[in-house]
Amino acid sequence: QVQLAESGGGLVQAGGSLRISCAASGRAFSKCAVGWFRQVPGYEWEFVAAISWDGTSMNYGDSVKGRFTISRDNVKNTVDLQMSSLKPEDTAVYSCAAVFTFRAALIYTESRKYNFWGLGTQVTVSS
Question: Which of 35, 67, 98, 127 is 20 to 30 A (C-alpha) from 104?
Fold first, then answer.
């Protein structure tokens, strides 16, 4: 069992920056690939970013490339998402998700690949 909890969401003006964090508990977390997904009412979960459990592989959704950075600390059991140059269309509930992987550099971009999910944190970007 892996438990995830997001924090750091809030209100920010367009063009600003915000860092959100995913804190995990559970022995298997350090061997999990972790992804960030976001959702707005009426839409499916959208892939934002993912990182392998060894931190060597990363991938980003097209809409956030060049603006968001994912990182992890396997000592603290945390995964952060640094968001910069925020736009109103970035407004959403952001959730982190994890899945155990045997290969250290493996990552997934599909939400269906992840079986552990946090409850999410709201990020609102004002114009």
Answer: 67
Determine whether 88 is exposed, middle or buried from the number of CB atoms within 10 Å of its CB (0-12, 13-18, 19+): exposed
Backbone φ and ψ of 31, nearest 5°: -110, 20
Among all chains, which residue has been given the structure tokens 């409850």? Answer: 119
pLDDT in tens, 45-74: 999 999 999 999 999 999 999 999 999 998
- Please give the C-alpha separations between residue 122 and each of 43, 54, 112, in angstroms, as whole numbers: 15, 28, 22
Strands lying side by side in the sheet with 68-73: 3-7, 18-25, 78-83, 68-73
d(CA 76, CA 23): 8
Nearest to 49 by CA among 65, 31, 72: 65
What is the pLDDT confidence band of residue 121, given thresholds at 50, 70 and 90? very high
Amino acid identity at 66: G
